[in-house]
Write a structure and sequence with these properties.
The complex is a heterodimer of chains A (306) and B (289). By secondary structure, chain A is an all-alpha fold. In chain A, 75% of the residues lie in helices and 0% in strands. Chain B starts with a helix and ends in a 15-residue tail after the last helix. Chain B contains eleven helices and no strands. The chains are: A mainly alpha (306), B mainly alpha (289).
Chain lengths: 306, 289
């Protein structure tokens, strides 16, 4: 297990470095700077501001300075949100995004696998068609359509749940539902396909002929093998879910990380965007490592000998 | 295309859902082409007497908050969405096909390195990169095509590599090599034409994804610019006013959902037809618990 992690580590760190570097230079290539759009500042003041933030140095020097700061765990001051540094903003936004994303992922995974397995067990029966129809709908309705609809239905018309904002556990439900539904649909389809395949496999036939109970066959012989495609889907799914969270945070007016990212990119808040990129990259890479490990555990052929 | 594939194709297109999906796509394409000229309104024309009014005989889908005809705007949005989806898919085809063919044919370390890059790219949230690109280079349609295409070639590269591995040791390839053909020549003249069919099919699978990504960006206000429009822009506008004018959300959302559904379905069916190993539909009925 440890050896597996160690072999993956250089690739992960390399990817991380490439992402951070690419994002840094892309941001700086963008026309305009953080001090452009408000009232035009007197040139002397602007020069002083640029000097204070080291924006007057050549780009490579700025890059090295930034990397040094990041290695010390300091993401720098925000250019736009006065009196805040990026660490504070991320500390405020990240828990919101993680809560919504975590609930959505758990919901999509548990319900998706359950529905997919149920559909596979009742293949070509009414239940299967219902579930598959529902998932086809889930795949065709992007979260930025489901989100407003849920907000309108449950928030405004029925008044059961808050249609936006942040504060209590009730605020998590609609955003997490909207974010998770497309993934639930995708996972259910994957699970259905691979469970159907696993049900026809020789080892399951053997288990059946040994007279094992249906539960035991399903839990011990069908699902572990059948879940590997679902697990390997989780890596890309987590990346897509982060992207989806940007929209969901906009729809439900949540003070999360995604809004900082988009706002920061639009008004050239260099450090805030970079901070968000670093956090996103870290989460994605860590999650992919976990998925790799889980994959190795589920599929004995892939277990790395240590 | 061999006879078995043809018969599977014919069989598959006899299914009612497949016909429905084909019909929906044909309808959307016709709608995009014709609706602006039958509505009697320009997509950016303002009807000052009818601001944010529900559908009626002069505005079939109602008007938006600026008094513009939603029927025409949904059709213009369809044009944008379809154009972006098709061109971006073409870009992904142009990148993914040679990438997969080269990796599969050369093999060895180069193959490993190239596919490792694909693996790594797979895990990245590319929409963020596209957001950065759009912010950096301004909101430009061509950039959108290229950026979206550049992030959606990964699946295709994998498929093409797999197909290439299957034919790289066929006798005609060996014969070409014996005759002294160079690697680029073999890839171009012998491998690419042979993997073209499946590659085109898999490209249709990327179309709905790209369309979704475009709507997503437009929804965030990073896609096409006013008064140009796309389904994502219309949905974003509609979502803002959905309590007072629900039709503004309903029409574009219905169009997007119906199109995505049809394209997903057709893509899946085409894949089953061209790659029967992938689907489980043609197998003998598997066991149950």
């Amino acid at each position: 297990m440890l050896a597996h992690v160690l072999t993956r580590l250089p690739i992960l760190l390399g990817t991380f470095a490439v992402i951070v570097t690419a994002a840094f230079f892309l941001m700086r290539l963008a026309p305009g700077g953080p001090f452009d759009d408000e009232r035009r500042l007197p040139p002397e003041i602007e020069a002083n501001l640029r000097a204070a933030y080291h924006l007057d140095e050549p780009l490579p020097a700025q890059y090295l300075r930034y990397v040094g700061m990041v290695l010390r765990g300091d993401l720098g001051p925000s250019f736009k949100q006065k009196d805040f540094d990026v660490n504070e903003l991320i500390a405020a936004g990240l828990p919101v995004s993680l809560t919504i994303g975590g609930i959505a992922l758990a919901f999509a995974l548990i319900l998706g696998v359950t529905l997919g397995t149920a559909a596979a067990l009742h293949r070509d029966a009414a239940g299967d068609f219902t579930i598959m129809g529902f998932t086809a709908l889930g795949l065709a309705l992007p979260s930025f359509v489901i989100g407003p609809l849920l907000g309108l239905g449950f928030g405004v018309m029925l008044g059961w749940l808050p249609a936006g904002g942040w504060g209590s556990a009730r605020h998590c439900l609609l955003p997490a539902l909207a974010l998770g539904l497309p993934f639930l649909a995708a996972i259910a389809r994957l699970a259905r396909g691979s469970v159907i395949e696993a049900l026809a496999a020789p080892h399951v036939r053997t288990a059946r002929s040994k007279g094992l109970s249906r539960h035991r066959i399903l839990l011990r012989h069908v699902l572990p093998g059948a879940l590997t495609p679902v697990v390997s889907f989780l890596g890309p799914a987590a990346a897509a879910m982060l992207a989806g969270s940007v929209v969901i945070e906009q729809v439900f007016a949540l003070p999360g990380l995604g809004r900082y990212f988009v706002q920061g990119a639009l008004n050239r808040d260099y450090t805030l965007v970079m901070g968000a990129v670093i956090v996103y990259a870290t989460m994605i890479l860590a999650f992919n490592l976990i998925v790799d490990l889980a994959y190795a555990r589920l599929d004995p052929r892939l277990r790395v000998r240590s | 295309m061999n006879d078995a594939t043809k018969s599977r194709l014919r069989h598959s297109f006899r299914a009612p859902v497949v016909r429905a999906a084909t019909g929906i796509i044909a309808f959307v394409v016709l709608f995009a082409a014709l609706a602006p000229s039958v509505s009697g309104w320009q997509y950016d024309q303002i009807d000052w007497d009818r601001i944010a009014e529900p559908p009626d005989a002069s505005h079939y889908f109602g008007t938006d908050a600026a008094g513009r005809d939603l029927f025409t705007r949904v059709a213009m949005g369809a044009r944008t969405s379809l154009a972006v989806a098709l061109l971006a898919s073409a870009v992904s085809f142009v990148i993914g096909l040679p990438w997969g063919a080269i990796a599969g044919y050369i093999g060895g370390r180069i193959d490993q390195a190239m596919m490792r890059i694909v693996d790594v790219l797979y895990a990245l949230p590319f929409v963020f990169l596209v957001i950065l690109l759009v912010v950096v280079f301004g909101r430009n349609m061509y950039l959108l095509f290229i950026a979206l295409g550049a992030i959606s070639w990964l699946d295709l590269a994998r498929i093409v590599r797999g197909q290439t591995l299957g034919i790289r040791n066929e006798t005609f390839v060996l014969a070409a090599r014996c005759l002294g053909a160079s690697t680029p020549y073999i890839v171009k003249r012998h491998l690419v034409p042979n993997v073209m069919g499946p590659a085109l099919v898999y490209t249709t699978l990327t179309v709905p994804g790209v369309m979704l990504a475009e709507s997503f960006l437009s929804f965030l206000g990073l896609g096409v610019q006013e008064p140009e429009t796309s389904w994502g822009v219309l949905i974003a506008d509609g979502a803002r006013d959905m309590e007072s004018s629900p039709w503004l959300l309903a029409f574009p959302a219905a169009f997007l959902a119906a199109t995505l559904w049809s394209m997903n379905l057709l893509g899946d069916r085409l894949r089953d037809v061209f790659d029967p190993r992938h689907g489980v539909g043609d197998r003998p009925r598997p066991g149950s618990l």
